TrEMBL record:
InterPro entries: ACT-like_dom_sf, ACT_dom, GcvR, UPF0237/GcvR_regulator
Pfam families: ACT (PF01842), ACT_6 (PF13740)
Organism of provenance: Agromyces binzhouensis
UniProt cross-references to SUPFAM superfamilies, sorted A to Z: ACT-like
Record's protein name: ACT domain-containing protein
Domain named ACT: residues: 94-175
Length: 175
């Protein structure tokens, strides 16, 4: 069965997930995994689906028909068995950071990850009010994978150096 990765975005309103699920189900698709959220008045997400090969073209056409309600793009995905084998040899690492919000935090942290060849599995970021000091706090929660032969201690040292330059608190743990 072909695997598709769908990217979805539309004005936030009731019924978006249901409409998408109906189209997938009507074409024999199996909704496997997703991450979705409301961001700045838009509902956005990524959905992984398996669909019978004979239904793939019809599903893609039906997804195009959702335009006006939401924009959906379908991209070919990697087979589940290959994906599982690839991630089994990588070491997971959880990264949590919080600090006063300012431009460049994600850029500088992601530069460290790229320098060490890490792959981001998930990243969630947001802002919230600083209760005592005023202003805004920036939070990021990541799960990354350290490649075979990579040294998590080197990654930790590099991240801690950058965190001190950015004036953010950093917590690292096992994925």
């Amino acid at each position: 069965m072909p695997r598709l990765v769908l990217t979805v975005i539309g004005d936030d309103r009731a019924g978006l997930v249901g409409a998408l699920a109906d189209v997938i189900g009507d074409h024999g698709g199996n909704w496997e995994q997703s991450q979705m959220a409301e961001l700045a008045g838009q509902f956005a997400g990524i959905v992984v689906v398996d669909v019978p090969a004979e239904q793939e073209a019809a599903l893609r056409a039906a997804l195009d028909g959702l335009d006006g309600l939401m924009e959906v793009s379908a991209h070919p995905g990697v087979a589940a068995t290959a994906e599982a084998g690839a991630s089994a040899v990588w070491t997971p690492l959880r990264i949590d950071l919080i600090g006063n919000d300012h431009p460049g935090i994600v850029r500088d942290i992601s530069a460290v990850l790229a320098r060490h060849g890490l792959s981001i599995e998930t990243i969630t970021t947001g802002q919230r009010d600083a209760p005592m000091a005023g202003g805004r706090l920036f939070e990021a929660h990541l799960v990354v994978r350290v490649p075979p032969g990579g040294d998590p201690a080197d990654v930790r040292d590099d991240l801690e150096r950058v965190a001190s330059e950015l004036f953010v608190d950093l917590t690292l743990g096992h994925g």
